[in-house]
Please model this.
Amino acid sequence: MNKRFLLLAGLAAITGAGLLTGCKPKQLIAPVQSGVAEKVYVAPGKYDEFYNIVSGGFSGGVAIYGLPSGRLFRQIPVFAQHPESGYGYSEETKPMLNTSYGTQVWDDQHHVGLSTTNGEHDGRWIFANSNNSPRVARISLETFRTEEIIEIPNSSGNHSSPFLTENTEYAVAGTRFAYPLDDEGSNPDVPIASFKDTFKSVISMVAVEPKTGRLSIGFQILLPGIDIDLARAGKKKSHDWIFFSCYNSEQAHTLLEVNASQKDKDFIVAINWKKCEEYVKAGKGRKSRNPYAHNVWDEHTHSAKSTILNEVTILDPTELKDIVYLMPCPKSPHGCDTDPTGSYIIGSGKLAAIIPVFSFDKMLKAIADKNHEGEFCGLPVLKYESVLHGEVKKPGLGPLHTEFDGKGNAYTSFFVTSEIVKWNIETLQVVDRAPTYYSVGHMTVPGSATVKPHGKYAIAYNKITKDRYLPTGPELTQSAQLYDISGDKMKLLLDFPTVGEPHYAEAIPAALVKPKSKKFYKIEANNHPYVTKSEKDARVVREGNVVHVYMTAIRSHLAPDNIEGVKIGDEVYFHVTNLEQDWDVPHGFAVKGSGNAELLIMPGETATLKYVPGRVGIAPFYCTDFCSALHQEMQGYLRVSPAGSDVPLKFGIGETAPTAK
Amino acid sequence: MLLTMNPHTSASSSNYSILRSFAAISLAAALAFSLTGCGSKEAAEQEAKQAPSPSDLAQNQPETHGTEVKSVELTTPLKQDWVTAGKGVYDMKCLACHKLTADKLVGPGWAGVTKRRQPVWVMNMILNVDMMLEKDPEAQKLLELCMVRMPNQNLTPEEARSVLEFMRSNDGEK
Model:
């Protein structure tokens, strides 16, 4: 009886589990074929073939993995504080997180773009967006550090970003959460229900200086209040154009889940950025005067500087009639992807059961023929049939994003049916499909964003992890999956966990990045205002209640390591210079009770920790990064005396340390 | 010529077995490549002329540690501009661990070093510390004494030579 009950209970549990996970694909066990292990095995001490540059989602940074192993190498802090390295805590890095709203300690990092020259990866920079407080960042592929962040004024919900133009002329940004703008470009206090009259969306073209990568807001394009979602620039013949998907052409401002899903079609917004550039040069457009921050890292002062700027040029396409055209696209399109030839634009209506493929040639013809089906808020809407190359019929449910292998195939991710569908761009026929575990969002085929995809793999970045790993309570790791796409059939090779929710990612051959990787910063070139280039110059200087500690770190001592004469009410700045000049010898620095993060100081670098003593007594400090056999000895003492005490300022190390007398 | 140098790499005996066990995998990789390669012969040749392919890079990673110094020529009197330059390098990159007296700090004091050691030994200790700690019994004795591997401070051969001149000056040579 008992046995039978257990059996029944077991069956019920299995059925229940089946019901609960009803949107999983039918196969519950991954169809992994034999012989895949050697395809992803990178032996100890050997290198991966690709760098996988993956957005970190709500971790606020970007993460670097190796492919095919899926090993995590590094998290690059970008839009969020990172106590592990002191990013956003050290005096030098605090300005990186400045915005017109003041310091933003966190953001939501969605997409990355790798710089290209003539449409091919050049291994110079990673660009990254933040969605919450709109910003675009540039990260060096030599140092894997954030070098620059520019805020996007007049915008919110910067989702369709940073997607680069073919020659990295621009990174782009677009408004996902339409937002009130008036003629002064300000953000006025208006009723939310005035949406249709007062809310606007803008596309921002963030210009990239070709040599230095330095960012500036080139210009903005004013659009009606719609939710700009994703973007891709044209390539080759479509080089001058960039395409954005949008949803909520219903212009709803509440319960968008229902109210923004009413119309049969929303739009792909086609923008001729080259023509926009000409108009800007000719002095067209009006000036907006909203403040925005521009934060730049200087590798020689090892410090960031934040500047608040106030002016951008806004072009109005209802006045400049030949810069913006709308292509109807079924059902709240998400992905908007251009193929490597620049001939096709694939819209993925996330609520549609087809994938529409638009033809760039047909679009130009429809524009020339004025083949309009009407207007939307004063913008020309081209006829759907006139711009359509064709539709992929019944590919699956919930198409989101499409990647390309450069051999005429497209790979579209399907969220609802949890699969990757491979189809032929010319014939629009589905040629293969592979399940993902579970609910794939973005996908990467190495080099898909370029004119010359590297192919070989597809990586699925999944939205749901469920039972794929050992459970860790309610909060699970995020997950990615690697597929071999070199043959006719896609083959699942590997699951690997990721940091934060992974959105878009790119992959680049190691050969384009590895040889340029910086090993250390030259101490001779260190122009930090508080650098200490020789241990004999290590010292403590009092300026009123501000105390500057000029400290050096080398295996394995900090100098000075005995400091007296600091008092309650002082502000102490530890400016620590790492005197090492070899690869992989960072030193760390932390002080007891500081209420601050640690510093992680690379060889040749200077970094500053602010410490406001809160208690009388001895505050030990030490090196936090195991650096040598005598690392444990790399420690020191700071004596904190009461406010107003007459303990003189003394400091030293070894023979120069303060004595008992 | 004051210096004679030979590139010194460490992809030597200890790595050999690893390399050999990889031959099988690289062969498999090569086969996979030839199977998936669809370009013409010319295209393949053109590709071969370009930078190393990712799989080459993944298979072949000799680590170059530095350039071994084979001989050093000393001249008298000392070159005073080298002594000055050497003092500058010492202040920035050596002083934290080496005193100019005979007293040990982190590493040995420098007084008398040019009497105890051959110029070539000093130069290689500065420029090729990994090689010295691997091969040289005297360097190994010092590691046992100091317990900290001497950092490679990435001096150029010219800078190292100026440090040697400064050491000679510190030892009383004119």
About this structure: Residues 1-27 of chain A have pLDDT under 50 and may be disordered. The radius of gyration of chain A is 28 Å.
